[in-house]
Amino acid sequence: MSLRRSGGYFGTSSAKRVVKKLIANGTVSVRIEALQESERLDIVAHRVYGDASLWWVIAAASNIGWGLQVPPGVRLVIPVNVNPIIDALG
């Protein structure tokens, strides 16, 4: 679970639904990358967003589930702008 900006928590399914909806309706654009050897989702999130705690955005967009470590070569769907996602989740 991750903390909402407004307090409280949201879980995997609620975050995934929001992320997928915003990508599908074009509000959030994405780029595709393959996970490299010795990378984790938090490392990718830090590189892309400057904030490792946003790893769950990549996990939700990529249908990975709620795990930081996934095998190298996994196709990552990386939302380019996380602000609409964060705003939608409150």
In short:
This protein has 90 residues and is an alpha+beta fold. 40% of the residues lie in helices and 16% in strands. The chain is built from four helices and four strands; from the N terminus they run E-E-H-E-H-H-E-H.
Overview of this structure, please?
The protein has one domain (2-89). The protein has helices spanning 12-24, 41-49, 55-61, 83-89; strands spanning 2-3, 9-10, 30-34, 75-79. A two-stranded antiparallel sheet has the order 1-2. It is of the alpha+beta class and 90 residues long.
- Low-confidence stretches are 1-10
Largest sheet: 2 strands, antiparallel
How confident overall, as mean pLDDT? 86
Rg, rounded, reads: 12 Å
Number of strands: 4
Strand order of the largest sheet: 1-2
Q: Count of helices? A: 4
β-strand amount: 15-25%
Please describe the structure with a list of short key phrases separated by commas or semicolons.
alpha+beta; two-stranded antiparallel sheet; globular
Topology:
Layout (H helix, E strand, L loop, with lengths): L1 E2 L5 E2 L1 H13 L5 E5 L6 H9 L5 H7 L13 E5 L3 H7 L1
